[in-house]
Amino acid sequence: MASKTSVLAVALGVSAAVGHVVYPLAVAAAARRRTDEPVPAPAQWPAVTVLVPAYLETGVIAAKIDNVRKNGYQGELEVLVVADGDPQTADVARAAGARVLLLEERHGKSQALNKGVAAASHDLIVISDANSELEYDALAYLVSRLVVDGTGAVAGEKLEGTGGELAYWRFESWIKRNEARLGTTLGLDGGLCAVRREAWEPIPADISNDDFWIALDQMERGWAVGYEPRALMTEPSIGAFNLSWERKTRVLGGGLHVMWRKRRLLDPRRGLVSAELWGHKLWRSTVGPVSHLALLGVAAASARRSRTARVFLAGHAVGAAALVAQEKGVRVPLPGRVVAQVLYLQIVAFGGMRRYLRGDRVLRWEKPAR
């Protein structure tokens, strides 16, 4: 009969793996017999507003506007830059040919989006960050998916970083593709997404995670959130460890606040939305990391008599060493980078939980000028 320690270790291992292993495999199994429905181009390309919220973006905003205009979209196209309390960015954007909405004071991204959607000239709106670069035809792919009946928003495909970070984004894309095959995905990314004005409700003033809120709010009201992997955008990595830590913990803490505000969707009677929320977000952000930490404690207590425990601890030592090496600029082999990324994300989860429990919700975060 298995010892109590072995049973506990297995239970903690399964719990730690729910978000990154169990849920993704379950979604893939459920979606395996469903194929991506081909989305034809509309008979006539509708008019579109590309909404770019911007703060301290004088160095990139002109290139962003040029990138949008050269994306190949065949319908009427408006580029609307919402300069969030930033007259310098407004001046550069205006000179580059964009329509500009200058807010007198900084409101934060969520409220800038509210004002931009209200001011947009067209009912189909693509949201894209100022520092992201759209691959050719990304707008057309998004719009083709957005005009499908019942679709309120569409997520594009984000490529960011290298090594472990890039592998993580590809993993996320695989999950979103399978979720979308089942009917809807909550994996919206504010770097590139599209929304219908008729499906839009203003984002509340206490919400910093605009994309997560938009997805859950639309799903709650019966709209589907689609996923279009051909709508590609690249975004440079944020770089320095302290900046990455601040952003990721802020996003995770803000995400927990969104889930608290939308906690009625956690009810299993909500079906697919509840399953995605538990599996893709909540368990991965809370119970999973806590279980992982507890499993480390069990392994440490069992290390003298268990080879498995020693291997488990050694793997974490390798991941920690890879993290330190990467921070110092040392080139780490891909397997080490992947292990380091997984370990880093588990640590980030604790930072995000701490920020949430402290009520540390930053609506107008500090950011470097670009």
UniProtKB/TrEMBL annotation:
The alphabetized UniProt keywords are: Glycosyltransferase, Transferase
Highest taxon of the source?
Bacteria
Q: Where is the Glycosyltransferase 2-like domain?
A: 49-198
Q: Tell me the GO molecular function terms.
A: glycosyltransferase activity
Which Pfam families does the UniProt entry name for this protein? Glycos_transf_2
Which Gene3D superfamilies does the entry link to? Spore Coat Polysaccharide Biosynthesis Protein SpsA, Chain A
Family recorded in the similarity comment: Belongs to the glycosyltransferase 2 family.
Entry protein name:
Glycosyltransferase 2-like domain-containing protein
